[in-house]
Design a protein that fits this description.
The protein is mainly alpha-helical. The chain has helices at residues 2-7, 15-30, 33-75, 79-96, 98-133, 136-160, 166-176, 182-187. It has eight helices and no strands. Helix 6 (136-160) packs across helix 7. Residues 156-165, 175-188 have a biased composition (Polar residues).
Length: 188
């Protein structure tokens, strides 16, 4: 029967607990049957007292929780407000954490580098457009377009005898030849 009692002892977690458990088991095994029964009775009574204290503490805790809820209600503190405060505190804790600060730093650095790259690209494109605008071929195209416009404008003024804008001259030229704009046929 003594072997049966020591077989029910659970394995301790640490070497120190193992030594303590072995000592307790050895002391208990050395006791007589009456002394073992007496110890078990003492332990059962102590367990009953501890369980009673636990139940009393649960009752007191429930009463205190109700009282706290009543006070919060009177103060206008709602469950939603508590939840919001908890979430805000959680965000604050996250923002203050070193992991978040490192992540924020990396994102800032990446954003700055990206902005720098886009700035370089934009300035490069602007520079190329400026170079194109000032190039000989672009000046040549501008001159040709300008002279073509002047030639058309001169021909229009010489035919009608009056100076008008280019779109007006085109409209006048189209009506001279019986050509109507697409909107004219819709309105007629």
């Amino acid at each position: 029967m003594e072997d049966h009692n020591t077989a029910n002892i659970s394995e301790p977690a640490s070497p120190a607990a193992s030594v303590a458990s072995a000592e307790i088991a050895a002391e208990f095994a050395a006791l007589s049957v009456e002394e073992k029964e007496q110890r078990r009775a003492e332990w059962s009574q102590e367990l009953a007292r501890v369980e009673e204290e636990i139940n009393t503490l649960r009752t007191v805790l429930a009463s205190k929780t109700r009282h706290a809820s009543d006070l919060k209600r009177k103060l206008g503190i709602t469950v939603w407000k508590e939840l919001t405060d908890d979430v805000n505190q959680g965000f604050k804790n996250v923002k203050e954490s070193t992991v978040f600060q490192r992540t924020e730093s990396v994102l800032k650095s990446t954003g700055e580098k990206t902005a720098s790259v886009f700035g370089s690209i934009t300035s490069g494109i602007t520079s190329k457009f400026s170079q194109m605008k000032n190039s000989e071929s672009m000046r040549s195209i501008e001159e040709k377009v300008g002279s073509a416009y002047e030639n058309v404008k001169t021909k229009v003024t010489s035919r009608s005898g009056s100076v008008s804008s280019f779109p007006d001259a085109l409209d006048e030229n189209n009506t001279d030849f019986g050509l109507n704009s697409p909107t004219d046929s819709v309105t007629k």
